[in-house]
Write a structure and sequence with these properties.
- By secondary structure, this protein is α/β, with parallel strands linked by helices.
- It has nine helices and five strands; from the N terminus they run αααβββαβααβααα.
- α2 crosses α3.
- The longest helix has 19 residues.
- The model has no long low-confidence stretch (mean pLDDT 88).
Length: 254
């Protein structure tokens, strides 16, 4: 085996390791970025070619949709303060939240998530079998306890009855948060959390078979807390993970 063949074999071995180390969730762009950070001189085209030849294909989602927003209610609607302004200057200034459906053989589940726009970190989440106000309150409480944000944080959601409820509005007031809500039927107003749920489904939900709710809870914890927040690199964050990006911010301001 000549030096060219040895390098190709070593490169393919490293690509295969990175692919499996990230549970088959990385395609050629992220694997190329990871390799280049390790010192490899390699193009995305070559990485894609080698992956195709080795049968390494990242997870692909199957599309189906379950309605998770009930906007037919008489509760007060907050103005759309966020207004698709997804640029902010620090963590814990703007949070977005939503609910998505999680299929499970033992019975359907719903995930309420709270995402920090600056870091793309999931700061709070709760998995439950009903789309109740308690579900979204639990995710918000977890986020508040974990992050301890300053007063004035902008909290954006859709117009769902859970977020518009008296209990939820009272909790936002207790935490000194300002409420913002999307326009009716406009998913782009909450694009950041919609994007997270899309990634979640593509990389995890539709590549995993949940037989029990206990399994779903454990696997969700591992995906969000151990992989997505701490390990998964994001192009919009300079190919850092949300936790790394957050840590870098506080290092710079300290």
């Amino acid at each position: 085996m000549n030096s060219y063949q040895k390098r190709r074999a070593a490169l393919l071995a490293r690509i295969t390791f990175i692919f499996h180390d990230h549970f088959g969730r990385y395609g050629s762009p992220k694997i190329t970025e990871t390799l280049q950070r390790e010192g490899w001189t390699v193009s995305e085209r070559l990485v894609g070619k080698l992956m195709k030849g080795a049968g390494l294909r990242s997870c692909v989602s199957r599309k189906f949709r379950v309605q998770t927003t009930d906007s037919k209610h008489d509760s007060p609607i907050a103005p759309n303060v966020l207004n698709q302004n997804f640029q902010t200057t620090a963590p814990n200034k703007v949070w977005v939240t939503d609910i998505t459906y999680i299929p499970c053989r033992q019975g359907r589940l719903y995930l309420a998530s709270v995402l920090d726009i600056y870091t793309r970190k999931i700061v709070g989440w709760k998995l439950g079998d009903r789309m109740t106000t308690d579900l979204v309150l639990a995710a918000l409480d977890q986020a508040y306890e974990a992050q301890k944000p300053p007063k004035g944080l902008l909290h954006h959601s859709d117009r769902g009855s859970q977020y518009a409820s008296e209990e939820y509005r009272a909790r936002l007031k207790k935490y000194h948060m300002r409420a913002s809500m999307s326009r009716k039927g406009n998913c782009y107003d909450n694009a950041c959390i919609e994007s997270f749920h899309s990634v979640l489904k593509k990389e995890f939900i539709y590549c995993t078979r949940f037989l029990t709710k206990a399994q779903a809870q454990q696997d969700m914890f591992e995906y969000i807390e151990l992989f997505y927040n701490r390990k998964r690199i994001h192009g919009s964050l300079g190919y850092l993970s949300p936790v790394q990006y957050e840590e870098n911010y506080y290092k710079e301001v300290s």
